[in-house]
Design brief:
Elements: E1 3-8, H1 14-25, E2 28-31, H2 32-42, H3 49-62, H4 67-79, E3 83-86, H5 91-99, E4 103-109, H6 112-122, H7 131-142, H8 152-158, E5 161-164, H9 169-183
Parallel strand pairs: 1-3, 1-4, 2-3, 4-5
C-alpha cells in the first residue's frame, strides 16, 4: 500500500492531483478538510476558513500535531489500497506519515493571482473572499513556530516532489504521472 500526502498553497491544485490519482490510478482519497468540516459541524460552528484553522489547531493541541492525519491514516490502512491524504499542513503530520513507511509527500504551488482566480471560480463556502483576504489567509498559514499550527512553507520544503502548477491541468497530470512512474509499483523511487 502506497500513501501519498499532498501539501501546497491555497488554490495551487491539490484537488486536481487528488482527482487525477482517484480517476486514473484508483487511489482512495482521505481529506483533512472533510475531517475538520465534520468536527466543525459537531461543534455548531460556521464552516469557513477561520473555523477550519481554529478547529484544526485545537484538535492538534488537544491530541497531537499529527492527530488528524493519524486518524485518516488508520482509515486508509483499513482499505489496503493506495491512498492519498490531502492536505498536509503541519510538519508533524508529514513526519508522522513518513514514519509509517511507504509514504511520499507531494507539494504543489502556483502564482498567487492564478491561485486566487482558481478559488474564486470554484465558489466553495470557504473561498468566497477578496484577494487581500486570500493573501492574509495564506500568510497566516505559511509559517508558525507552534507545532500545532499550519506551516505550509516547511511542509513544502519537506516534500519528496514539488509541482509548479502554472500550466494546464494536463501539464500537472503529466508531471504527477511521471513521478508515479519514478516511484514504481513497489513504492520505492526508481
Amino acid at each position: 500500500m502506497l500513501i501519498i500526502g499532498i501539501t501546497g498553497t491555497l488554490g495551487a491544485g491539490k484537488g486536481t492531483i487528488v482527482d487525477f490519482l482517484v480517476r486514473e490510478k484508483s487511489f482512495i482519497h482521505f481529506s483533512v478538510r472533510e475531517f475538520i468540516s465534520r468536527e466543525i459541524v459537531k461543534r455548531g460552528l460556521p464552516v469557513n476558513r477561520d473555523s477550519m484553522v481554529m478547529v484544526a489547531n485545537d484538535l492538534r493541541a488537544t491530541h497531537s500535531p499529527s492527530y488528524i492525519v493519524d486518524c485518516l491514516f488508520d482509515e486508509a490502512r483499513l482499505s489496503g489500497r493506495n491512498c492519498i491524504i490531502e492536505s498536509i499542513r503541519t510538519p508533524g503530520e508529514a513526519i508522522s506519515l513518513r514514519a509509517k513507511g511507504n509514504f511520499f509527500l507531494f507539494a504543489v504551488d502556483a502564482d498567487p493571482a492564478t491561485r486566487y482566480a482558481r478559488i474564486a471560480a470554484r465558489k466553495s463556502e470557504t473561498d468566497l473572499i477578496s484577494f487581500e483576504t486570500f493573501l492574509q489567509n495564506e500568510a497566516r498559514e505559511m509559517n508558525s513556530a507552534d507545532p500545532n499550527h499550519q506551516n505550509l512553507r516547511k511542509c513544502i520544503g519537506m516534500a519528496d516532489f514539488v509541482f509548479n502548477n502554472d500550466g494546464s491541468v494536463n501539464d500537472l497530470e503529466l508531471m504527477v504521472g511521471a513521478v508515479l512512474d519514478k516511484i514504481g509499483k513497489n513504492g520505492k523511487i526508481l
